[in-house]
Amino acid sequence: MRKRVSRPRRFAAVDNDAIDGLPSILSIGLLTRLIRAKDGDDVTVETLSNDYDEGEKSLTKAMRALVEDAYVVKFKVQRATTEIVIEDGKEVVKRGGSWYTTFSVDSIPFSAVDVTAMVEEIYAEGM
Q: 28-66: per-residue pLDDT in tens?
């Protein structure tokens, strides 16, 4: 019997129902890219359109499909207090009252119960 040494993850797993049920191949590709992103990555339609051949309009349409089918849940959150965040490796001051967008993504659609738990978590963080 041989045991292989654990290796770093080299792939993103996408549920077959997402692959079969999403309306476009671009939506499937975008879902895969979002699943692969690390927490804190600057993943927006604008940044992705700079990195890939697809334009912002096409990516926006694909993102809308992911949101409508509940694979992506976005929240626009207003900061309660001034805070320091790291952007591009540098500390940046974000004033209280400023807004940011956060999202959750999965290859299995989120339920209303999942979204309620996300909202409760955001409130618990005091954001």
A: 999 999 998 888 787 889 999 999 999 999 999 999 999
What is the rounded distance in angstroms from the CA atom of residue 24 to the CA atom of residue 65? Answer: 9
For 10-20, b/e burial (b = at least 16 CB within 10 A) is eeeebeeebee
Q: Is residue 79 packed enough to be buried (19+ CB in 10 Å), middle (13-18) or exposed (0-12)? A: middle
Q: For residue 85, how many other CB atoms are within 10 A of its CB?
A: 12
Q: Phi and psi for 47 in degrees, rounded to 5?
A: -70, -35
Cα dist. 51→6, 65, 70 in Å? 30, 20, 25
Specify whether the CB–CB gap between 33 and 11 falls below 8 A. no
Give the list of residues 6+ apart from residue 66 with CB closer than 8 angstroms, or none: 22, 27, 30, 31, 34, 72, 105
The answer to whether the CB of 107 falls within 8 A of the CB of 20 is no
